[in-house]
Amino acid sequence: MRVRTHLSLLAAAVFLPVILGSALAIKLLLDAERRAVLRSMQEMARATVLTMDQEITAALASAQALSTSALLAHGDFEGFYAQARAADAGSKRHTALLRADARQVFTTLLPYGAPIPLPAEAVAARMRAAMMRERPTISNLFVGSAARTYVLAVSQPVWLADGRRMLLNHWIYAADMNRLLPRDTPASWLVSVFDREGGTIARGQRWQEFVGKQPNRALLEALRSGRASTVGETRDGVAVQVALARSPLTGWSASVAVPSAEFEASAARAVALTAVTLLCAVALAVLGALLFARRLLRATEYLGAAAEGMAEGRLPPPADLRITELNALQKVLHAVSTRLIRLDEARRHHLAEAEEARRLAEAQNRAKDEFLAMLGHELRNPLGAISSAIALIQMGAPAPAAERAQQIIGRQARHLAHLVDELLDANRVLSGRVQLSGVAVDLGAAAREVALTLQTQGVTSQHAVELDLGPDTEPTWVGADPHRLQQIIGNLVENAAKYTQAGGHIRIRVRAPEGAPGMGELAVIDDGKGIDAELLPRIWEVFVQGKVLSRAQGGLGIGLAVVKSLVEQQGGTVAVDSPGPQRGSTFTVLLPLMEPGAAAAPETNAAPAPGLAGRRVLVVEDNADLREMMCAMLQSRGCTVFGAADGRSALALAPQARPEIGFVDIDLPDISGHEVARALLTDPRLAGIRLVAVTGYGQLDDVRQALAAGFARHLKKPVRLEELEQAIADIASAQQG
């Protein structure tokens, strides 16, 4: 046998294990590639589900936030409609409010009051079922009665203050959900999303043709069984490999379908590569088996390392393997590895966003629960005192005790009114709808006046209050609204008293700080319980407060939020610092300095009020108890009083009674108080009549509407006898003048 033959046989003997090993390695790589492609498909399906979940989670958070609306709780649907429109702005959602019979009160898709078609019976039944649940629900695909196209709904059951049960819906167009599908997929890949019944929500291709339809039977069975992957055919008869993922939040499923031919294309290329490699190895083994074996082994080792790197999520650096086919395989490995890394990063990003949305929703829910608990406590105390006082009077208590009970009822009723006014005023301040007059105000004088007022009221009577207001000869003039400046100082001092034990110290300091030229500084410093580190970043949020030393001073947790908003609206800043628990806290306000102007003219004493005896007064109020009490109070002052329970009764009674003054409720059962006012003021038989609006609506727009309708004054409920007397006196003085 020739040496060449021996060498060839030796080369073949040496090279044969290499060839077999290479073939095995390629086989393993092919299997790994199949698994990698399937994993990438499954990751894409999971990423698609997470993207849908993110949109639904945002809708759930928005629905839960809207469900806490005071406007909704008190049945102010038109006001709540405006609130819902504002919440929908910038999103792809629309809000609808449904009654217990599944009829829609409104939808933000249409103007308020516009007629809304009745939903299909099946949809109505699902809405009624969602209303009966105690938690939010997410619907399957259905055709909306107002949108007239396929939509999805996030439903939040709500209870109104009067006990009615309603349903708050956030619904989203299926077309908008379809736009959330990944757009960087190959043209041959088909990404789809199905609801819990198998209806098509989103589809990467020909969506309008298949929306709402179920997939073929094989895929439908795979969806229902919860499998992670399956094989089947498209509606066009193309064999596909399918990866599936199901959302634990919505129960929807996403599928990624790839043609089987494309799925196996890499395997076919690898088989061809193996054949070529083997032929070349046999041919070259005769000429240079050792060199080729060495080169092939190095290439195989590199590809094996690359495959291992793919499994660990790292991308090996490219290298010249000096074999075209293996270089091509290397490119494929790099492309697949790059795609896997990107998909993993996208998945992590979506998971982080979903976690952040969940954390925000939980924080908002906790804030809502804390606020409701505080509000319930603040309301139960005065209501309990009022109930006890009424029971004492009904038991026939002696005159001193009955008088004391009456004083308690009056004081607690004023406290309830103060709570409502505080909430409304905070809403106006935080939304930036207050008008602020920027005048020069002595910051030290304002602080002194507030401190004296709070001491007189007993707020700081158990604390040692120190005033460090700087030299009297050099007052600190700042540009601010005088009334709102006192509100800022009062809120900060009350907050310090609330969290400082009896006998503790509160220091109010006014100065011109060195580090902030052009600014005046007010600091409120206490040695109370301090602020916990985890609470400090959230101290300015609405309804957030620490645990007070006395629950009687609890409040609603809105004072500091109002302070921050008022200070910033006047060009200033506010900051808080606390070394830690039981080490006190310091609140520092900086406001821009302003040159002092001319002193305001002193107020002159108002003219004495004319007598009320003999005045003819009309009271229009649908609440029988309130109407009776207003009439009794006015009769006790010598007025001749006529009462009417609705607008039409008032219009019929007025020409006979000929009243001089009318107190008219705005929200009447038949016609509005504005219509009553216009009719009375244009009746020639009632020349000279003056009207006062009495209503629970106290926003600026409500006052403007009342004045535009012809009312001379606007009073907010509950109305005290002193306010009724003052209103009559003011009108009488204007008539005499």
List keywords for this structure.
737 residues; alpha+beta; 5 domains; five-stranded antiparallel sheet; 19 helices
Task: Provide an overview of this structure.
The protein is an alpha+beta fold and 737 residues long. The protein has 5 domains: 68-177, PAS domain (Beta-Lactamase); 181-263, 2-Layer Sandwich (Beta-Lactamase); 370-429; 438-592, Histidine kinase-like ATPase, C-terminal domain (Heat Shock Protein 90); 616-736, Response regulator (Rossmann fold). The chain is 50% helix and 17% strand. The protein is built from 19 helices and 23 strands. The strands form 5 sheets. Strands 1, 2, 3, 4, 5 and 6 form a 6-stranded antiparallel beta sheet that branches. A 5-stranded antiparallel beta sheet has the order 8-7-11-10-9. A 5-stranded mixed beta sheet has the order 13-15-16-18-17. Helix 17 (673-681) links the parallel strand 21 (661-665) and strand 22. It starts with a helix and ends with a helix. Mean pLDDT is 82; it is low at 549-553 and 598-609.
